[in-house]
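To: structure desk
From: M.T.
Subject: fold request, one chain
Message: Could you run this one when you get a chance? Sequence is below, nothing fancy, just the single chain.
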Amino acid sequence: MTDDELDGLRRAVLDEQERRVKVAQLPGELAAMARDAVAAGCDPETLRERVDDALTPEQAAALDA
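Reply: Done. Structure tokens follow.
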């Protein structure tokens, strides 16, 4: 394996580790943001709409499945 190939694998591992951390952390962060927004007076239905709007049709369909 060349140094470039090895470095590419190292970067791929770091990217995957970062992705996994985000998958673990982001739902909790989103929940905390939603609680803070509601406490500040935001309409919960508006928050739901914004989250739904942020999803692609494929992502939204996966939630409904």
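Reply (cont.): The first helix runs from residue 3 to 39. Let me know if you need anything else for the meeting.
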